[in-house]
Structure to design on (394 residues):
């Protein structure tokens, strides 16, 4: 099958989450991603549980479709191998603390002389400029510093970290987007460039209306729980057997909601005719809606609201998500056979393309799985490879 990034050669020097997530996206779309790992240890996330037959489920979830080559970059022979790979590469991705690649003699200024067409993508906590540049960071740190924790959590409650590592994941997404933009520029001009993505910048970028609200009001937004701060009603409501999320995001949908409830006249109530009025009379509106939703089960309401065209949904746990018929129909949970872990299940490829659909070609590699093949393709003999192993270069 033809894929959108088929033929693209990516040298992946990343580890843990932000960088590997970016390179996974490229690999899913067909890029040949060569993951560089430390001999005997590998990516830090190989040591993160849970484990399946000794293999990290964490690592396997974000390193599919890649090949693994072990290189000890403190060894000059290993560094020479890396430079040979970079000469042939389209993209290099790293997520070290700024300055690390320069200490290795492999900074962008050096590598662009070796390969002027190279796209050098760096994902770090605070970026390659600014007063915080050299500081270390993990997801929880940038969630705290980037403001998202301050608007997450129960109303009047403590700031709360978002469950998934969105500091890392958004940095990975922005890194992949930056690489694709740089590829388009290179296709037009023949020039490579450096892509610099900071996790902290990514958190600010996804604050969306929180920033607008601050500048409009002069007051920092606070956690509001599951309630939308600008659209009403837009939150979970109690049912006979649980809760249902209802998002009646405009006046027409609010009218449809009350049509389902059997009293469309509420939509004409002077307190609720417009979204701003519903915000001003929020408590009265919520009480009236809750009085209705408590009369039926979540599934009953889901059926009725779907028929009326009112956006809604149950609050699924992970077991419910992976068994949801829509998720299955869109192939968003796939079975993948790993050479050591055996049968594993991974999230599918979320980008659906009519001509060049990405897919999972192979499970995440075991450490150094492809080292010998890659070196032989570079022209190394079996004896030379053995020597490199003995001296600890690979």
């Amino acid at each position: 099958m033809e894929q959108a990034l088929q033929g693209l050669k990516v040298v992946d020097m990343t580890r843990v989450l932000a960088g590997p997530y970016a390179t996974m996206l490229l690999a899913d779309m067909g890029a040949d991603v060569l993951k560089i790992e430390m001999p005997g240890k590998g990516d830090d996330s190989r040591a993160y549980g849970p484990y399946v037959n000794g293999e990290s489920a964490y690592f396997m979830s974000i390193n599919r479709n890649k090949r693994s080559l072990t290189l000890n970059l403190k060894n000059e022979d290993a560094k020479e191998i890396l430079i040979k790979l970079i000469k042939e590469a389209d993209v290099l991705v790293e997520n070290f603390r700024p300055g690390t690649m320069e200490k290795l003699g492999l900074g962008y200024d050096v590598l662009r002389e070796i390969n002027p067409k190279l796209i050098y993508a760096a994902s770090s906590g605070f970026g390659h400029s600014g007063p915080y540049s050299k500081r270390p960071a993990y997801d929880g740190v940038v969630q705290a510093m980037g403001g998202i924790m301050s608007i997450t959590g129960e109303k009047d409650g403590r700031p709360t970290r978002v469950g998934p590592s969105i500091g890392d994941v958004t940095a990975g997404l922005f890194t992949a987007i930056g690489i694709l933009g740089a590829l388009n520029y290179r296709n037009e001009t023949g020039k490579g460039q450096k892509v610099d993505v900071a996790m902290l910048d990514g958190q600010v970028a996804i604050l969306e209306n929180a920033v607008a609200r601050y500048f409009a009001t002069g007051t920092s937004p606070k956690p509001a729980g599951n309630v939308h701060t600008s659209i009403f009603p837009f939150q979970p409501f109690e049912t006979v057997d649980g809760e249902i999320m209802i998002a009646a995001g405009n006046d027409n949908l609010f009218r449809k909601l009350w049509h389902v409830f059997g009293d469309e006249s509420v939509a004409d109530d002077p307190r609720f005719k417009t979204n701003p009025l519903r915000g001003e009379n929020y408590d009265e509106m919520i009480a009236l809606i809750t009085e209705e939703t408590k009369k039926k089960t979540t599934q009953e309401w889901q059926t009725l609201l779907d028929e009326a065209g009112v956006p809604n949904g149950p609050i699924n746990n992970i077991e419910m998500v992976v068994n949801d018929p829509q998720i299955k129909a869109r192939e968003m949970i796939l079975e993948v056979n790993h050479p050591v872990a055996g049968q594993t299940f991974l999230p599918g490829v979320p980008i659906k393309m009519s001509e060049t659909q990405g897919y999972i070609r192979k499970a995440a590699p075991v450490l150094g799985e492809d080292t010998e093949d890659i070196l032989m393709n570079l022209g190394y003999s079996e004896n030379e490879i053995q020597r490199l192993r003995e001296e600890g270069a690979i």
